[in-house]
Design brief:
Layout (H helix, E strand, L loop, with lengths): L5 H24 L10 H15 L14 H39 L5 E4 L4 E4 H16 L2 H15 L9 H10 L2 H30 L5 H20 L4 H23 L2
Antiparallel strand pairs: 1-2
């Protein structure tokens, strides 16, 4: 007859539940995994499956009673770590969407928006289109697998143990959030320069030839030039996105080291 003690039950449960909490936080915020089109049960099942797979390779877990307050605090801590790791990669795609907002504003397509279930708000058409392009590049580069590999490394850098987290890790997250505007503007900069030059030229033309209806002429030209530039720029953004994804993976590791006080 097989017998096991309460301590063994806690050991088996803890070896699964603490990694599960961190992965659950990641799945809730990380790109691709957090899409609203994926059912919540599938997300929870995916986090549980990954936790079961990686649990045997992790270091010894703290032997805390699952129903105790220290265990509750440890679970909340792991969820926050997973959410922060997912937010770092979410900022990468938010920067791409910001670039679409900049481009659409210069092209006159800022009013062309529709409800995006992923964000729960109205999103510009170009933002949604560039986000799809970035997601396809992410999948083509196996970015989702690399992101999971980086998360597995965080278990070595930041092992699961009771205690407070170093504030330097949250500082890394705040510092990385600046890429939302910086990288978004860099991605949209070629089109912004050309379209801004066209708008300035139409402004000068409006002052010199006031009988010309600039709004009737300028909008189709700005739209045509913007679409022509997009056909040239979009095939060339893959190297930029590759470097941006690599920077996101590095930021995840820096944040883990910062939370661990390294």
């Amino acid at each position: 007859m097989i017998q096991f003690t309460t301590e063994q039950a806690y050991l088996w449960l803890n070896s699964f539940i603490w990694p599960f909490f961190r992965l659950l936080g990641l799945v809730a915020t990380a790109p691709l995994f957090s899409e609203s089109s994926i059912p919540k049960k599938v997300k929870v099942g995916l986090a549980a499956l990954i936790a079961i797979v990686i649990a045997p390779s992790l270091s010894d877990m703290p032997t805390l009673p699952t129903g105790s307050y220290p265990a509750l605090l440890l679970g909340i801590q792991q969820i926050l770590i997973g959410i922060a790791l997912g937010l770092i990669m979410r900022i990468v795609f938010a920067a791409v969407q910001t670039a679409g907002e900049f481009i659409g504003l210069q092209m006159g397509l800022s009013f062309a928006s529709f409800f995006d279930p992923a964000t729960g708000s109205n999103t510009a058409v170009l933002s949604r289109f560039l986000n799809l392009v970035a997601m396809l590049v992410f999948l083509a580069l196996n970015g989702h697998l690399i992101m999971l590999q980086v998360v597995f490394r965080t278990f070595e850098i930041l092992p699961i143990q009771p205690g407070s987290l170093n504030s330097n890790g949250w500082g890394v997250l705040l510092e990385w959030s600046a890429q939302l505007m910086i990288s978004g503007l860099l991605l949209a900069l070629p089109l912004i320069i050309v379209l801004l030059t066209i708008n300035l030229a139409f402004g000068i033309l409006n002052r010199t030839a006031q009988q010309l209806t600039v709004f009737a002429v300028g909008f189709p030209i700005s739209l045509l030039v913007g679409l022509s530039l997009l056909t040239v720029v979009i095939p060339q953004i893959t190297p930029f996105l590759m470097r941006f994804f690599d920077s996101g993976y590095s930021a995840m590791l820096r944040m883990a080291r910062g939370l661990a006080g390294l």
